[in-house]
Write a structure and sequence with these properties.
Layout (H helix, E strand, L loop, with lengths): L6 E2 L4 E6 L2 E6 L1 H7 L2 E5 L6 E2 L4 E7 L3 E5 L4 E6 L2 H4 L3 H4 L8 E5 L11 H15 L6
Length: about 140
Amino acid sequence: MYPEDIQYSNEHNWVRLEGDTARIGITDFVQQQMGDLVYFDLPKVGDKVEAGQPYATMESVKAVSDINSPLTGEVTEINESLDEGPQQVNRDPYGAGWTIRLRLSDPSETSRLIDVAAYKRLAEETAAKRKPKAEG
């Protein structure tokens, strides 16, 4: 469910570092929480994004939500195939469902990323907070 060869953020992004760039997407946990994804509003190539700030919007049959960037940098590529097939993120969040590629402005920010074990704990804690409390 969570690949071990990538890093994760507290904002529920995954990050695959590729030299001075990073491929970024949303985690399987987020796509499951959102349900069937129907639309992505991605930035343009050349746009600057800031860590912790929204870089895109995703829409599902349930809700519209911002996607916050885990890192600061310049967008060098967007996944244009999400225009025609946003559900790729539901089917393959760590492969065909990536959102952007970013040229890193400050590579030291990657030290804030977490490994798969830490991310699994975060996802479990987040899921537990969202469960409705039983009346009693």
